[in-house]
Amino acid sequence: MIGSLTLDQLRVLVTIADLGSFSAAGRQLQRAQSAISQTVATLEGIQGVRLFDRSGHRPRLTEVGRALVGQARLVLASAGRFEALAAGTREGIEPELAVAIDPLVPTAPLIESLRALRNVFPNLPVSFSTEGLRGAERRLRRGEAALAFCLLLPVVPEDLVALPLVGARLLPVVSPTHPLAQLGRAATLADIEEHVQLVLSDPAAPEGASYGIIGSKAWRFVDLGRRLDFLLAGLGWCRMPENLVAPFLDDGRLLRLRIDDDPAASANSLTLYAAHMRDRPLGRAGRWLLDDLKTRFEMPLSAYGS
Amino acid sequence: MIGSLTLDQLRVLVTIADLGSFSAAGRQLQRAQSAISQTVATLEGIQGVRLFDRSGHRPRLTEVGRALVGQARLVLASAGRFEALAAGTREGIEPELAVAIDPLVPTAPLIESLRALRNVFPNLPVSFSTEGLRGAERRLRRGEAALAFCLLLPVVPEDLVALPLVGARLLPVVSPTHPLAQLGRAATLADIEEHVQLVLSDPAAPEGASYGIIGSKAWRFVDLGRRLDFLLAGLGWCRMPENLVAPFLDDGRLLRLRIDDDPAASANSLTLYAAHMRDRPLGRAGRWLLDDLKTRFEMPLSAYGS
DNA sequence: ATCATCCATCACCTCAGCTGATAGAGAAGA
DNA sequence: TCTTCTCTATCAGCTGAGGTGATGGATGAT
Fold first, then answer.
1. Same domain, B226 and B172
2. Which of B11, B12, B13, B75 to mutate to test the interface with A (most CBs of A within 10 A)?
3. Fewest CB atoms within 10 A around its CB: which of A19, A85, A226, B59?
4. Which bases along strand C come within 7 Å of a protein CB atom?
């Protein structure tokens, strides 16, 4: 049982396998050869296996020994990650980076920064969560996430620090089979009033205000995918981020819906922010990620920090 | 460094986290509470981290502590696999099961047996290799695989023990765009002679005999997938296992090619065998898998063992 | 045959981790 | 408030696992 197995035994085993000799392993580990011999004998005794064929001048790994050396490497690597994690926190790196992402936020623009993060902090555990509209903000406030990628409405709240990354353009869209697609002209507000708007909503406040609602017929969804299913099936219209509907517009499964006197037309663009709590400083990795994002996006607005 | 970290420290850490108390951990591990206290203090000292907030009556994990407990579990699990592997070999289970599969062999019929193998021997490392026609047999003979799934031609060699599992029916097929598909009648051998046959061959003997060659125009492939690409593109005809071409026949991308006086017509079926070396007995897991396959397939031929 | 290097075994020594006792503190209940 | 139970930290003393260096037998190269 693990009560007897030691990482030191595994280290000795792997070193012998790598150098091909007990005495060479002793030299590398700065121990007497007899200590090496004893350690292997103890490991063999307790595990009940023969790791080496000793009939030749030098020891040769048995088949069992080879397989166990392979697993020993995995154990030692995992232990190394434990120590790297501990070392990281001594240097101010957070033990974990929890990131919350709102459903409308495209991940593609973030991929390169996240990939770079992994290269610079290879042992950092990172978690991503998505919870519905405003869910990311909520996770920040609850201390469940250190960083949020979200669309902040209508302005950046005072308790958050938010770096604007990119605009998120929303387009009114509809399926070609939907009556609004067959008007042959731009839709009036009266036309819109006749039909269901498919709305992405905040799961914590389903009846609360949601962006750009026109009519009185609103079907609310927490789940972006389910809303898309309804949209494609022609059950209603909605405003969608351009990045998400581009493929559907390209192949004709969805059409852009033109609306006369659209109340949301003047603010038809939302900003994707990378936000964190003002009173809870990011750790080193979080700060690094934010700086990397700032470099990659370089948004002209100077809203950050203010 | 790993020279100081011990599995025992990690076990103590995880036990405290699970039970919420140093003394409870001591009771479970049958040690004095002070030993637990010391072990944690040593771990904290060497790794330079504070694992517990001790300002309350009971210790509470810090954020760092929580992350490190998570990694400690992974290390202990990996060490557990090391011991399970050792225990397995004591019981006659081989340290690894290397399986070679010929490219024409369908994997779908084997899936259930392999899934069951994983359930019965959860810590057994299993590797699969594919090397081209006859590659599986070659790996058996080289000692690189314990078990082979292959089509043995023309009879089972004497040095192998082979359990017949299922017949593998080969169909001559062609793309609808190929001239042979547009004859409007069965093809004669003269028709066939005019066109390229796409042949799967042995990478070790590319010019060697391959099954069912008719004409003098043979393009040889080691790679089943590439051959299929050429076939679908109408560059030639070939004999394919029925199981592999059924979807293509169903949706019309391939047609069955009827051949008058086909020399291979009388032996249009090959047998899939599970084979191993006669002079190298299988370990427990290999034997178990063979028995399971025997049960699942129950082939009426009694060629096994003879 | 000689030499260098290998691993196994032995007797002895050292110190990490164990024990039980003690002190101070928190939490719950009367 | 007091009592009781339970908690962790620290201490002094003890034990045995794993270290050392020496020795013996064996292998492999010259």
1. yes
2. B75
3. A226
4. 5-11, 17-21, 25-27
pLDDT 10s digits, B170-189: 889 999 988 899 988 888 88
**Interval B105-129 mean pLDDT:** 78
**Cα–Cα distance, A13 to B108 (Å, whole number):** 40
3-state helix/strand/coil string of chain A:
CCCCCCHHHHHHHHHHHHHCCHHHHHHHHCCCHHHHHHHHHHHHHHHCCCCEECCCCCCEECHHHHHHHHHHHHHHHHHHHHHHHHHHHHCCCCCCEEEEECCCCCCHHHHHHHHHHHHHCCCCCEEEECCCCCHHHHHHHCCCCCEEEEECCCCCCCCEEEEEEEEEEEEEEECCCCHHHHCCCCECHHHHHCCCEEEECCCCCCCCCCCCCCCCCEEEECCHHHHHHHHHCCCCEEEEEHHHHHHHHHCCCCEECCECCCCCHHHCEEEEEEEEECCCCCCHHHHHHHHHHHHHHCCCCCCCCC
Q: Nearest nucleotide by C1' from A33 CA?
A: C7
Question: What number is the average pLDDT over the span B72-96?
Answer: 88
Whether B237 has a pLDDT exceeding 60, the answer reads yes
Nucleotides of D under 7 A from a protein CB: 6-12, 18-22, 26-28
Coil, strand or helix at B247 = helix
What is residue B302's predicted lDDT score, i.e. its pLDDT? 43
pLDDT tens for A231-290 read 887 878 888 878 778 888 998 989 999 888 877 765 556 788 899 988 888 889 999 999
| Model confidence pLDDT, tens digit, residues B35-56 | 999 999 999 999 999 999 998 8
Domain range for A56 is: 7-90
Question: Of A90, A111, A141, at which residue does a domain stop?
Answer: A90
Q: At B235, which CATH number?
A: 3.40.190.290
Of all protein residues, which has its CA closest to the C1' atom of C9?
Answer: A34
A32: Cβ contacts below 8 Å, ≥ 6 apart: A26
pLDDT at A214: 66
The pair of three-digit structure tokens given for residue B89, joined into one six-digit string: 């070999």
In a domain, B211, yes or no: yes
Question: A98 to chain B, minimum CA–CA distance in Å?
Answer: 12
Contacts of A95 in chain B (CB under 8 A): 63-64, 66-68
Q: How many domains does chain B have?
A: 3
Can you list the residues of chain A whose pLDDT is less than 50?
1, 300-306
For residue B198, the cross-strand partners are: B219
B236 and B179 within one domain: yes
Structure confidence at residue B241 (pLDDT):
80
Strands B218-221 and B197-200: parallel
Residue in A43, A89, A121, A126 to test binding to B, most B beta-carbons within 10 Å: A89
